[in-house]
Amino acid sequence: MASEEKNNVFVELYDLTLSERTDDRFGRVVTTKSLHEGDLINIAVKRRTDLSPTTLRASLDILKEIAIEEIANGASVQFGLGFFGLDVRGVFIGDHAQWNPEVNSLHVKTAAGVELRTAIKDAHVKVLGLANSGTVVNTLIDKSSGEENTRLTPGGGVNLTGSKIRIAGESADNGIRLIDQNSGVEYLIPIESVLVNDPKKVTFIVPANLPFGDYKLSLTTQFTSGSALLKEPRPYLFDYVLAVQ
Fold it and tell me: Could you list the pLDDT tens digit for every one of the 245 residues in the chain?
């Protein structure tokens, strides 16, 4: 049973650099934790001790397999927290045009279900004020597809824009990593693949052999606005999940 306590969301403020007003800010939700399916199963078991982790995992895997099969065959499926279906991208020339995989592609479209929408609408939001002026990535552009904050193309270029994102310092922790959200494996971007390394813009090449999956991007640096570097590396985890497909 869902908790009757009100959900809590924390928001930090950042400079809106494109605005003419010097006091305009935009809000970003503070990510309090990052959970995987295994974490959710463990939470469910703690709440319901009569449930088996093995049974929950098996049930989830079966339902996921069925949902994927139906969606991949053109069905619109309500599953879990929302609705899933397929969308077509790319232009067709003429009334009898055929599918051209170099131009056309299928993408998954999603929409949140009413339960999730209600939980978000009813959440208590606390604004924490101006964020600590540390490293922050505002946007990630996949140059091959032109998509923003959604995907990575193996072998393609990526533009990051933000604040204090220049990679600097001698620590081995510094650099850009792509973290597989299923396996937890981290792929370090070689420094020679970083083509632009500025405080507000970083450009790098995605490894050509990066396996398909869902990833998060982390950027660690000792860079700061002053002349001296930070004594300790400062890690930053980008909020969005990035698809490699």
Answer: 444 568 899 998 877 665 566 778 888 888 777 788 888 999 999 998 898 999 999 999 999 999 999 999 999 999 999 999 999 999 999 999 999 999 999 988 999 999 999 999 999 999 988 877 678 888 999 999 899 999 999 999 999 998 889 999 999 999 999 999 888 899 999 999 999 999 999 999 999 999 999 999 999 999 987 778 888 888 888 989 999 98
pTM of the model: 0.69
- Which domains, ranges and CATH numbers included, belong to the chain? 8-127 (4.10.520.10), 134-244 (2.70.50.70)
The encoded tokens of residue 121 equal: 């609408």
Q: Is residue 70 within 8 Å of residue 99, measured between CB atoms?
A: no
Pairing assessment for the beta strands 8-15 and 124-130 based on DSSP bridges? parallel
- Per-residue tokens: 218: 């982390």
User: 3-state class of 191 per DSSP?
Assistant: helix
Q: How far apart are CA 185 and CA 205, in angstroms?
A: 18
